[in-house]
Amino acid sequence: MKVNLLKPDVYGATASIMCIIHCVATPILFIAHAHTHGTVDHHNHAAAPLWWDYLDFIFLFVSFIAIKQTLQKSSRNWMKYVLWLTYSLLFLLIVNEKIEIIALAESVTYGVAIVLAGLHLFHLKYCQCNDEQCCIH
Fold it and tell me: How many independent structural domains does the chain possess?
């Protein structure tokens, strides 16, 4: 697979993967920090800085822009719906995680982020237009 850093699919897949790493690393980093420095909040959770808690939304913003740009040069009409559906689901899962409406396992969010990264990589390899004739506008 030829990778071009100017392709939005690369940015979208990278943002999804970074989001997964961020989500997996958060409990590990802050629990380890709390036990070594004694900084635990009243719910017995490690206290994370506010900027770290909302880093997810930066990844979501990058993914949003990547999907918008990706679909301008897509040769597959169905990809538009699948990417937006997966993105919307990931967005709702992250918002739910922040405001805790429904208790869900973290693995659900990880799975959707992995699917989104996979869709970007699939699109990068199989769904690119080479000319204006095949692209969906």
Answer: 1
Question: What is d(CA 16, CA 1) in angstroms, rounded to the nearest whole number?
Answer: 19
In a domain, 75, yes or no: yes
Helix (H) or strand (E) holding 65: helix 55-70
Q: Considering Cα of 8, then 125, then 3, then 12, what sign does the dihedral take?
A: positive
Distance CA(68)–CA(137), nearest Å, equals 11
Helices (H), the chain: 8-37, 50-53, 55-70, 77-99, 106-126
Residue 105: phi and psi, rounded to 5, are -70, 145
pTM score above 0.70: yes
CB 80 within 8 A of CB 113: no
Q: Which letter does DSSP use for residue 102 in this model?
A: S
pLDDT band at 83 (very low <50, low <70, confident <90, very high): very high
SS3 state at 137: coil
Domain holding 100, by residue range, is 8-126
Structure tokens belonging to residue 84? 């937006």
Residue 92 lies in a domain: yes
